[in-house]
Known about the structure:
mainly alpha
Amino acid sequence: MSSATSMVDWDLAGRTARRLMSSGPRTTREDAAAVVRHLHEAAATAIAHVEKLTGMTAAPGGPLPEVAVVDRPGWVDANASGMAALLDPLVSKLAEKQETRPGPLATAIGSRATGVQAGGILAFLSSRVLGQYEVFGTGGRLLLVAPNIVATEEKLGVDPTDFRLWVCLHEVTHQLQFTAVPWLRGHLESEIAEFVAATDLSADVLRERLQDLLRSLGEAIRGDDGESEGLMALIRDPRQRAVLDRVTAVMSLVEGHAEYVMDGVGPDVVPTVTTLRKRFAQRRKGRGPLDRVLRRLLGLEQKMKQYADGRRFVGGVVDLVGMEGFNRVWESPQNLPRIEELTQPELWVHRVHGRPAIPA
């Protein structure tokens, strides 16, 4: 999994995470098998509801979507592999730009240090992530983390059937975004490549900053709210900050779109959807450990706010031009929202539709 120029020893990260992760809720083999079966059924059911609400369908001739119900170690393995597939080639490009390169011993020591730190973060997140669509790496898989879904529905005291379908609506929306819009993954990869091309950092300096960032995340998990630039500490070039703004806008769009869908299906599909949203929103409040990590990672309160802005952007555009009008966002990279349009959807409508925003 790790190459000679890897900034992070992802094999070590995975092993470290497995040692540190907490165990999931206790269950019998029969009950666990029933949860796996139910989650597969919920994911299959969610597809038709998401397609009906969004008006999107997977591009013909594309790969068949794969749903994988995993445990916490399975989630860690998938994410370690995905991050290695994304980051290692970029680090190799950085290394090629250097006139002098570190020896194999220095590289190994540095990558092991970051591997241990990354493993701690993966272990922490492994008990909190409910599901995700694998965009990078092998790509194309929808992961549902069964023990976390069960633990969350028990903690919230909600109907398991409704909650599992509700979670699947969110994740299947991500799956549909990247299968119905084939250029979206390549666009994100090209933006990340441009980010690397704009950097004047050596791989060594970047690794040191990454170690500082991972150490800062560990402090955030323990409750230390000291100030940190987070990812912004890695960014000095104005071109990189411009790329970060574009990527943030895209990720705000895809997250906001999924949030809109999971609530938009209504009580005919998920009878307790109002209760689910209320209790889930309460779960997100406060300065809990995950919240501290995300704030520390992003470095700015404003960056967290932009993910909520994505939900308001989607709802605002749909109110103005309807779902069909909103779907023009998927026609080309030029139609993706700009960061300032997240909070002013009428600007996007005027730019893309070529007319003032009048409510639909």
